[in-house]
Design goal:
binds zinc ion, alpha/beta
């Protein structure tokens, strides 16, 4: 896998520069050839695959006796979350961003050993209250996929725009997760579909004053048409809810994830058994 990446990088970067240097050596003094970064046409690019777990969190708060089975599937207590982050530190994981992964697949960046991405969905207030301080304690960063209506209407169960700006200033990344969290595959009105995908990006950009380049499909639902709209909207990558860690350069808009809940042993075994 690594060899494959190196051949790819050699082909697109080292070779053009070397070629330019050969030409330069034949030119009169004072005339330089500026190497133009040359990307191979898409058809000639090698497919790159790399095992990069993208952890997906939803609820981070103390357990409640009223928690249903469904909530338990997506909830982690602050104590276990802290333990999970410590595990990543102790086992040499390097937190990278979605942008790092995208740059790696586009041949412009190398990745550290044991790369891993942390992501949070839906923008629950408990993520600000419990996860954000623990991420800071461990000097880690994460991407938060938010759908914008709860923030626009100041819903008390969701992170506010002020808190989002605070998190953004502290190094957290925000991605779009639509406006109303619909099942995108059920929407037949093209304008509504575009509004959910395109306007959610614009709203977050306006509110935080930074570009938004990442998207997560609500309920993990998408099809080819939705993929096209996401690409045209200017996103550079998108996360699904497909289980797995093997990411691939031709699937930047269909990135896989590992769902995390309070089962620490499952968290460990998911990482240990990853398909690398
Ligand atoms: Zn969601």
């Amino acid at each position: 896998m690594l060899e494959c990446a190196w051949v790819f990088l050699l082909a697109i970067y080292v070779l053009p520069v070397t070629h330019a240097q050969i030409i330069e050596s034949k030119l009169p003094a004072g005339i330089a050839v500026v190497p133009v970064p040359s990307m191979a046409p898409p058809a000639l690019r090698s497919l790159i695959e790399r095992s990069v777990p993208i952890l997906m969190f939803h609820i981070v708060r103390p357990a409640l006796s009223s928690d249903t089975k469904d909530i338990k599937l997506f909830a982690v207590t602050p104590e276990v979350f802290d333990q999970q982050l410590s595990y990543l530190e102790q086992h040499g994981y390097s937190i990278i961003s979605f942008q790092d992964l995208s740059d790696y697949f586009n041949g412009t960046k190398q990745l550290p050993g044991n790369p891993i991405i942390l992501s949070f969905d839906d923008g629950w207030k408990n993520q600000y209250r419990y996860a954000f301080p623990l991420l800071q304690k461990h000097s880690m960063h994460a991407t938060f996929f938010i759908f914008t209506n709860p923030m626009e209407y100041n819903h008390p169960h969701y992170i506010s725009w002020d808190e989002i700006r605070e998190m953004s200033a502290a190094g957290m990344t925000f991605g779009a997760h639509t406006i109303t969290h619909p099942k995108l595959t059920d929407i037949t009105d093209e304008k509504v579909l575009e509004r959910e995908i395109i306007d959610s990006k614009k709203v977050i950009e306006e509110r935080i004053g930074k570009p938004v380049t990442l998207f997560a499909y609500p309920f993990g639902l998408y099809n080819e048409h939705i993929l096209d709209i996401v690409k045209k909207a200017g996103y550079t990558a998108a996360r699904t809810t497909k289980w797995g860690t093997m990411q691939s350069s031709d699937k930047l808009f269909e990135l896989k994830e590992i769902n995390v809940n309070n089962d620490f042993q499952k968290f460990v075994s998911n990482l240990e058994s990853r398909d690398n």
